[in-house]
């Protein structure tokens, strides 16, 4: 992933969210279900996003990002502490690159929510043992697609797709 593609100011244009659960294989939960969910996307849902606005994401050349709420965006939102909120609560942080993907991570995370292994420290913005959140971004054409994948209690799954367009210069 080339950081040059990500640098700039991005304006929210739409969002969609889905819920699911880890699948069973026979009588057992899919052993790879959590990792598969955190590492995948739902780009097939991009065409179904619901229009909304009021959030700006700015990515700088040093790999830092900041968010600013400029209205009342309608987005299913997990805050920096992994809590589902009734409104968007922006946060700031830095990009992490792993396995050809870019992830949004917090600069300072409370000690009990820091991922335990080396790989997850590069791709999870939150891991308190019960909830894991991967927050990845990629550019597709003229859009920045943000995929927030959440696993709760190793069983319940949420995914939020947020679509941005580049701000006019």
Features:
169 residues; Lipocalin; mainly beta; 14 strands; two-stranded antiparallel sheet; 3 helices
CATH topology: Lipocalin
Summarize the amount of helix as a percent range.
10-25%
Listing every helix as H and every strand as E from the N terminus to the C terminus, the arrangement reads: HEEEHEEEEEEEHEEEE
Q: Which class do the helix and strand fractions yield?
A: mainly beta
Radius of gyration from the CA trace? 15 Å
Low-confidence stretches: none
Name the beta content range: over 45%
The biggest beta sheet reads: 8 strands, antiparallel, barrel
**Helical run tally:** 3
Protein name: Lipocalin-like domain-containing protein
Organism: Halotia branconii CENA392
Would you give an account of this structure?
By secondary structure, this protein is mostly beta strands. It has one domain: Beta Barrel (Lipocalin), CATH 2.40.128. Helices cover 10% and strands 49% of the residues. It has 3 helices and 14 strands. The strands form 3 sheets. It has an 8-stranded antiparallel β-barrel with strand order 1-5-6-9-10-12-13-14. β11 and β12 form a beta hairpin. The mean pLDDT is 93.
